[in-house]
Each structure stands twice: as structure tokens, then as C-alpha cells.
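seq/struct pair 1
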Amino acid sequence: MEYKNGENRIFAVDETGKEVGEVTFSNAGDGMFIIDHTGVIDEARGQGIAQELVKHAVEKARKENKKILPLCPFAKSEFQKKTEYQEVEFKR
């Protein structure tokens, strides 16, 4: 699986070049972005792709010194499970 950066998204591509999942986000000022969607196609589910997509978004936030507001239910659940993500989570 290869993970690529796109415009306001990070997406996963399988070995055939087919896009199988994405996490999308919108910028909310200079220091924050909002994860608004995480999705994986049905035939690629159960492989940990969605978790990897959120992980890549967290790595992007760390690299850019930004915070994330996880509005997508899946991303929000990942932030609750993984304490190491809480450093980049925007707290209201």
C-alpha cells in the first residue's frame, strides 16, 4: 500500500494503482486543520488502511506544527484510542 498526499487529502493506492481510501481535511487557519472524512472502499476494508490514513494525517500535523480537529467519527475514535495523537489534537 502506498500513501500519497493530495490537495486537502491523503490517499491510499494499492499495488495495481487503484485508489482504495482517503482521509480528507480542510484548513482552519494557519495552525490547524479539520479531518472531515475517512473512507476505504469495501473490498479493502479490514486491512488497517483507515488507521494508517489517520496516522499519516497526524504525522503531517506534527511536521507542519499544526493541530487537528477530528470531526470525522472514525478519526475521532482513533484520537480517543491513541494517546500519542492527543498532542496534536485541538481541544475546544
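seq/struct pair 2
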Amino acid sequence: MITKKPPLLQEHPILQPFRLDGRWYDPSDKTIKLLPQQTSFLLMNGKIGKPSTPTKEVSK
């Protein structure tokens, strides 16, 4: 039996106000979590930035 993985959400910074699924998102919201399928059009139009990647702290 094949098990499906839950969809992976990516966190993107909001650069300009935009409307998605009947709701307005403003840059004051800072970030939004989206599915990869939702991001291409918003990235092309400059509404959101590239997904933020978690940084690992290197201990010496």
C-alpha cells in the first residue's frame, strides 16, 4: 500500500499586498505559508519573496 506524504508548506516573506482565496494579505503580516503549487504566479509578480530557509548554527 502506498502512503501519501502530507503536503510540504513553505514560508515566504510578503513583499506587496495581494489577494489569495478571497483574503487579502498585507506586508505587515510578514510571512505566509504556501504550497509549492501556489507560489509560482506570486513569485513572478513580485508579491512574495523566495522561501526562507532555516539556518543551522555551527558550534565550534
